[in-house]
Write a structure and sequence with these properties.
- The structure is a single chain.
- This protein is mainly β and 983 residues long.
- The protein is built from 14 helices and 45 strands.
Amino acid sequence: MKLHSIALALSVAGLSLYPHASVLAQTQNDSQINEVNQATEEASEIEVISVTGSNIRGVDLEGSQPLTVISAEDIQRSGFNTLTELMRTVNQTRGGTSSFTTAQSGATSTSTPPGQATAALRGMGPSSTLTLVNGRRIAASSFASGTENFVDINSIPLSAIERIEILATGASAIYGADAVAGVINYILKDDFEGFELSAQYGQSDISANEDEISLQAFYGMKLGDGNLSVFADYFNRQEIEATNREITATPVLQSSYSYLPKNTPNIYFGSTRSGDEIGNPACSSPLVTTEFGETICAYYNNEDDWLETPLESVSAGFIYNTAFGDIDFSTDFLFSSSSSTSVSRPSPINRVDDREGPFVDESILDTLPANFATIDDLFIDPFDTPAGRELFGFMFDARFSDPRTVEIDTQAMRLVSQLSGSFDDWDWRSGITLSRSESEQVATAGIYNRYQYHAGLAGELCANGDIASYDRSSDTLNCAGSTLLGIYNPFDNRSPDNLAILAASQAFPTRDGTSELYGWDATINGELFEFNGRMVSAAFGAEIRREEISDVPSENSRARAENDYLVDVFGFGSSFSEASRTQWGAFAEFQIPLADYLDVNMAGRFDDYNDFGSSFNPKVSFSLRPAENLIVRGSWSTAFRAPSLTQAGVQLRTTRASFDCGANQQVADLYCEGDNIIRGNNVLELGNPNLQPEESESYSLGIAYSPTENTDITIDYWAFEHEDLVDTNMTGVLAAAITDASLRHCGVLQEGEIGISYDPFLCDYTDTNGRTIEEDGANLSEILDEWIFFENPRFEELPLFRDHVLLLDNTGTQELSGIDISFFQRFEFSSYDLELSFDGTRYISFERNIPGSDQIEQLAGSFQYPKTVANAEVFVVTDDWFAGFTLFITGEYEDDTIRLRSRELEELQALGEIDDEDRRTIESFTTLDFSAGYYFDNLDIRLRIENLLDKDAPVAYGTSRGYDSFNHDPFGRRYTLSATYRF
């Protein structure tokens, strides 16, 4: 069908990231719009277009909402290979840590799942953005980011997308839960005829081993009375290692080291007579002097860091549209399969009970160089072995040699079928959605069984991996049906026999996840009655949805109460979650013309959940046209997000949690030597049956102005008030434990207990009234004083143990506001057009309470939250070719110096990098991209050069990588060459 002008205006509504058509061009033709609305006899010539944010179709609604559209032309001109690369350039998804890519992937349970990525709005969290495909939901990834579920946009092939519509304001009144920050709707191509083959090749300036290859095929044809479109997509990207980049090849600070080296262990300070760590003279890097005056072998994270993980994916699908008499039928199917590998730094080696300083048999001392350590330098102490023996030895400090490595395979599918038609003057549609995402993960390197490893250290490990049985009467070890191996020497990383002992303790934990979504929905929309000479339009609808999720790790990576919550393997926790949910909702929406120049849109939706109750969310918006080329628009709405299925179904999750000593001075005095720093500790997260949904209010007010048909200007103010955020709150639990004895426990917590775990030896100390730390009324400051007096510890703070047990909770609120500004200008010349555009977002405020405190922190301008993100473009466009430049601007923000150790701050002071208050600003970062293309009769050739001037990412000392991977990248100049051939 031929698109009528009103439909065309709606299909390109709003201002996109790239050169675009403005919706305001349509407002200059109000008389034509009225004629179209009255000409019902010509309705068959009009293709009714839906716009994200409304269920009323065919009415000029976008003027009441700031809708950003990325068109097919924009996507093609961008030159990007994946949806993830494209969405990283959208201002509304930039800033903060909500949107993430595979650059943040890792091999631990707290890392972003390997090979997966998401685009989220306004920095409000990955689960606060509703992701749609063709206006309907898609199954979330079964592997959550933390405990927040998200849609993996790597499962959506860019080649199948016609356009992307972004509504960055609350939309629960239309779509139900999760649209707290807004909606991103990926709209697929259809009604395509012909055959296209496309190929892209990307490469960096630095290494030939960092290439990207992408291949696509798209075929469309008439089939009966309908149209069938079939597509396939292949993508392959190699990893990028930190050591291949000059700015990440070496440590950003010499003092940013770990005491735990790999390959060349130190001797733990607890075994030395001097009380100082003894550094290994065989260290492969120069020894460092610590803040305690020790000289040790150290470890730097960049040694084993991948800045970008490898990813291989295959996608395919089809879209079919046809008609049966007066009823239209459409169905679309997507399938994707991806494989990725990710790494994290090698795991620390601890004792069996997870304390620092593992023991090794004293006989190993004879193998050490004479200039390392002698028996006169050490305490030789008894230790218990896995087989039940008591041996004598000393403690060492180390991590394993190989990084923790996981491989993950993900398959995702989505099938949507819809019937639609009309009766009288009403349109109707009804469809079903079936969507599934399934992931399988296996650890392939760097993971070792704690019991087998310590059996190896004691010479008790059998060749088949069993731990030898010990006959106390004969003082012998036995390996039934196998051979007893020798004693493992952690100081020898070369001997094949020694390495074979280590290999016998390697483990391969797995993780299997499935996420499923089943839904049915129905909508009718049309005109109700005439009001003020125009028609009041309405839409009504209902939806039923069933969601199921499971994230099941292998038993050897689970914490179990019967095993004192010790995970069988070192450095590899897991998230164990299973949940399901049924929800139904009903909505109504009205478009009311209060005057020729004023329209009001009102919507409301009621949703009921079988596990978290019900919620009603309204929305009111208006569009005022004081002049034919000016729109004033505004909206108010509420939104909600029920706890994610992972949050609702968490049975036990092993992870690390941070606590902020800057939020509470009492916490700082007890646990951080009085310093206002961030600390982390191993915790167990449990689900909380009392979790409440997150709720939000959003506001927007703006103008859209087109002084000429080639000039578009929009300015929109937006604000969100987001309450009852779901997270764990270790800072709050530490603060509450100061007065609540039920939260204080010596040693490992028992099943059913909640709270903080302290070193068991701490219970030997009391306050002046004789109370231990577990007793009501105990004075924790006095107990700390006693601990310091008798133990003379290295750190003068209450000694935390391991596996604190925390409930997920509604931890606090966040309020944010900002301004979006867009400008587009086209100059038409005889043989070409010159297009200029600017799109920018300025955060006015982003306030959030610090967990565990009523204190409000200002995120806007703080680490990873730049106040300003913007893009500017200049393009020359002709019928045969285009060429232009794009500036990507990320404003300055504070470095995360609060997380740094005192030794790092001292080095920064010596370098003159921080001020008197230990603060530092990360400079703004602007890169320039070049894009060009030429159109032959059947062949298109395009070139994109990213970071044309090869600028280095600004240094961020608050990260181990030395740069902020959420807002910057260190990849330097990259080239992408694309070709599309049409048969």
